[in-house]
């Protein structure tokens, strides 16, 4: 990690753009115009690609920084949580609400776990794993698909399931399963630290 890397380097600027894109994503998604769902999906996908790009550039240019290490996961969690809230409102079904709640609760749990482990000097034990990376890809892909396919409803209010929606739901459930599995692995790695630790507020 660079000791004197400037805060406003290129990787961090890309991350800040991802944060700034969140209100734009919300606005685009709810604009009552044709194609707004596709534009929202494209914007979310672009944000997901900058997540990979800013990390790559930070390593390639030697511009990793404490600020970037803090901001990057925060930006990811914010845009995913906002997108899931919008999807729950549009789909309004238990089948989407449950995985959305699981994903959000997992992110809160793992974030708290990493903060606690960092205080103990054991942050590396709960670093992002390969399972976590696969989970992120499945999560981003499923949300992109579901944002781009606002569902039609029958007269009784049920969602008309199209092949695209089935794919989106299947990918979301895959992401949810990987979410639970990766959380289990992080908790298991941190388990030796649970005994004798002080209780915080």
From TrEMBL:
Signal peptide: none annotated. PROSITE patterns: CDP_ALCOHOL_P_TRANSF. Its main location: membrane. Belongs to the CDP-alcohol phosphatidyltransferase class-I family. Keywords: Lipid biosynthesis, Lipid metabolism, Membrane, Phospholipid biosynthesis, Phospholipid metabolism, Transferase, Transmembrane, Transmembrane helix. It catalyses: a CDP-1,2-diacyl-sn-glycerol + sn-glycerol 3-phosphate = a 1,2-diacyl-sn-glycero-3-phospho-(1'-sn-glycero-3'-phosphate) + CMP + H(+). This is CDP-diacylglycerol--glycerol-3-phosphate 3-phosphatidyltransferase. It is a multi-pass membrane protein. The keyword Lipid metabolism applies. PANTHER family: CDP-DIACYLGLYCEROL--GLYCEROL-3-PHOSPHATE 3-PHOSPHATIDYLTRANSFERASE 1, CHLOROPLASTIC (PTHR14269:SF62), CDP-DIACYLGLYCEROL--GLYCEROL-3-PHOSPHATE 3-PHOSPHATIDYLTRANSFERASE-RELATED (PTHR14269). GO terms for molecular function: CDP-diacylglycerol-glycerol-3-phosphate 3-phosphatidyltransferase activity. It comes from Alloalcanivorax gelatiniphagus. The chain crosses the membrane at residues 12-31, 78-105, 126-146, 166-187. Its EC number is 2.7.8.5. InterPro entries: CDP-alcohol_PTase-I (IPR050324), CDP-OH_P_trans (IPR000462), CDP-OH_PTrfase_TM_dom (IPR043130), CDP_ALCOHOL_P_TRANSF_CS (IPR048254), Phosphatidylglycerol_P_synth (IPR004570). Pathway: Phospholipid metabolism; phosphatidylglycerol biosynthesis; phosphatidylglycerol from CDP-diacylglycerol: step 1/2.
């Amino acid at each position: 990690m660079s000791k004197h890397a400037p805060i406003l380097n290129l990787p961090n600027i890309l991350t800040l753009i991802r944060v700034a894109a969140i209100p734009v994503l919300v606005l685009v998604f709810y604009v009552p115009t044709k194609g707004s769902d596709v534009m929202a999906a494209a914007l979310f996908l672009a944000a997901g690609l900058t997540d990979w790009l800013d990390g790559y550039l930070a390593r390639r240019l030697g511009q990793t920084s404490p600020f970037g290490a803090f901001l990057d996961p925060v930006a990811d969690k914010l845009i995913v949580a906002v997108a899931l809230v919008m999807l729950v409102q549009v789909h309004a079904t238990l089948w989407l609400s449950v995985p959305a709640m699981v994903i959000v609760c997992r992110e809160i749990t793992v974030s708290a776990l990493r903060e606690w482990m960092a205080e103990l000097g054991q942050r590396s034990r709960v670093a992002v794993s390969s399972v976590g990376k696969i989970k992120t890809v499945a999560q981003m892909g499923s949300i992109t698909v579901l944002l781009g396919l606002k569902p039609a409803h029958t007269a009784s209010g049920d969602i008309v399931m199209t092949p695209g929606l089935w794919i989106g739901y299947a990918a979301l459930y895959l992401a949810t399963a990987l979410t639970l599995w990766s959380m289990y692995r992080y908790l298991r790695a941190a388990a030796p630290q649970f005994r004798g630790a002080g209780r915080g507020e």
